[in-house]
Amino acid sequence: MTELVVRHESWPLAQTFTISRGSRTTAEVVVVELHGDGVRGSGECVPYPRYDETVEGVIGLIESLRIDLESGLDRETLQERLPGGAARNALDDAFWDLEAKRTGIPVQQRLGISDPAPVITAYTLSLDSPEKMGAAARQNVHRPLLKSKLAGDGDLERMAAIRENAPDATLIVDANEGWSADQVEPFSAELARLGIAMIEQPLPAAQDAILTELDHPVPLCADESCH
């Protein structure tokens, strides 16, 4: 028999984190534990308001499966019972962890994945004034890849300040759907001049088609449009 434990944890951030849609000072996490055969499988998720998720709603979805989970519902059946999202992610993680501990076979081996090689990850600079983002870039000048949160007006000044303070870093930007269509071409041209490597999700997801008609010398990357 499997026992379900689900709880909410609130973790304070070292500093306020701001993107085009707003700011937060904590990470609101839903933690799931599946206990069985003397071992514990753990998973977690962060409900995302952008996709109409709340801590309460995610916990409610997980709790709606409590009887089934404690009666033998497995990871494969879970995919049919819950839509893709935070709740299913937390449970799926917990199942993988539980199965790995029960069998002694790491998840990597169960999936047939070769040993991972080191990769460079981006350090994110929170949206702020040009002066503060420039200062943040200077504090992180040792990092090879910086990702800057943007929002529209003032973005070129922000990126000029960041480039000045991190002249050798690879820079990418993420507007989180915060630009308007008429900003894409002039912003992209200037960002290309600053050596920006990639622009992530410049327009709202519903406006993707507009991008096919606009010149953008900097490559574009989707985020919200993929959900």
Write a short abstract of this structure.
The protein has helices at 55-63, 66-70, 75-81, 86-103, 107-110, 130-139, 155-165, 181-193, and strands at residues 3-19, 22-36, 39-45, 123-125, 145-149, 170-174, 196-200, 220-221. The chain is α/β, with parallel strands linked by helices and 227 residues long. A five-stranded parallel β-sheet has the order 4-5-6-7-8, covered by helices on one side.
What does this protein look like?
The chain has 227 residues and is α/β, with parallel strands linked by helices. The chain folds into 2 domains: 3-110, Enolase-like, N-terminal domain (Enolase-like, domain 1), CATH 3.30.390.10; 123-226, TIM Barrel (Alpha-Beta Barrel). 34% of the residues lie in helices and 26% in strands. It contains 8 helices and 8 strands, in the order βββαααααβαβαβαββ. It has helices at residues 55-63, 66-70, 75-81, 86-103, 107-110, 130-139, 155-165, 181-193; strands at residues 3-19, 22-36, 39-45, 123-125, 145-149, 170-174, 196-200, 220-221. The strands form 2 sheets. It has a 5-stranded parallel beta sheet, with helices on one face. A 3-stranded antiparallel beta sheet has the order 1-2-3. Strand 6, helix 8 and strand 7 form a beta-alpha-beta unit. Helix 6 runs parallel beside helix 7 (155-165). The longest helix is centred in the middle third of the chain and has 18 residues, at 86-103. The two termini are 34 Å apart. The model has no long low-confidence stretch (mean pLDDT 97).
